[in-house]
Amino acid sequence: RMCDILHKRQLKIHLRLDPLFNLTGVKKEQERLLQIIHGLTRKVVREKKSSQGSMLRDDLDDNDENDIGEKRRLAFLDLMIETANNGANISDEEIKEEVDTIMFEGHDTTAAGSSFVLCLLGIHQHVQEQVYAELRQIFGDSKRKATFGDTLEMKYLERVIFETLRMFPPVPMIARKINEDVQLASKNYTIPAGTTVVIGTYKIHRREDLYPHPETFNPDNFLGAYPNRHYYSYIPFSAGPRSCVGRKYAMLKLKVLLSTVLRHYRVVSNLTEKDFKLQADIILKRTDGFQIQLE
User: Which segments are annotated as binding site?
Assistant: First the structure.
């Protein structure tokens, strides 16, 4: 719902002005939703700090290793709290804001991404068979949960995810503020400094000069190297210094979630990609819902 409100403010000029927006019922709803979101984050931070207590930790302790002699990696929140406990000038509010960023960039986007993956696998059964074969090779008959090491072996599933995010990027457009005049190579135009430029990720990913048959779902688009493909031809997580900080977390989450579902169920869909009714809010979604069956 917060994404809907933000999208509405982008589309309606009178809602862009804070003095007018603050007089609306939408503003009150936004404040209520923010209290819920921030309340959850503050609760998580508070409980984590309480569980850790006031113990200080020496990050250089060589005995802090796992069973195979590797240095243990702290979770993001644990790392921030322990850094603050060890003397860094990080407030609880700053920790909360960083957690908010990670949760948003790795939650709504993965929810949309995983839904589109399952829809496409339900349509393209031969691709789903290859994913299942890969998972059988990794897990066999085991019912154990997926580990980080397992996700590194999910090469074909990774290509399926990449191709899905190409066709249906969770964030269909991104914006950048130009710091200096930019001369466009294609035409004799100059974008002046200070301009906000909107980049259509969805459109870039469907350019025929970048991807042969761009409307066709084909995981082999990400098989091997493509030296002639522009570095910024694939930007589901944006790119550059302002790219998504939750990219690795999102991919890990997608692999664990999808592998768990596909090890236990076959996905079936009676629709095709042409039947999808898309709505480009802040997060790309289907207005007709993600219609699949699990067998």
Answer: 244
Spatial contact of 38 and 96, defined as CB atoms under 8 Å apart = yes
pLDDT at 237 > cutoff 80: yes
pTM of the model: 0.78
Nearest to 138 by CA among 128, 152, 124, 121: 152
How confident is the model over 176-227, as pLDDT tens digits?
Answer: 999 999 988 877 889 999 999 999 999 999 999 999 899 999 999 998 777 6
User: Which long-range contacts link 226-235 to residues 24+ away (Cβ below 8 Å)?
Assistant: 232/204, 233/204, 233/205, 233/207, 234/162, 234/166, 234/205, 235/169, 235/174, 235/199, 235/201, 235/204, 235/205
Reported confidence tier of residue 259, pLDDT bands at 50, 70, 90:
very high
**Residue 283: Cβ within 10 Å count:** 19
Question: What is the rounded average pLDDT of the residues 223-239?
Answer: 84
> Structural domain boundaries of the chain?
116-295
CATH fold of the domain at 116-295 = Cytochrome p450 (1.10.630)
Residues sharing a CB contact under 8 Å with residue 21, sequence separation 6 or more, in sequence order: 9, 14, 15, 27
Question: Which residues are documented as binding site for heme?
Answer: 244
Strand partners, 200: 173
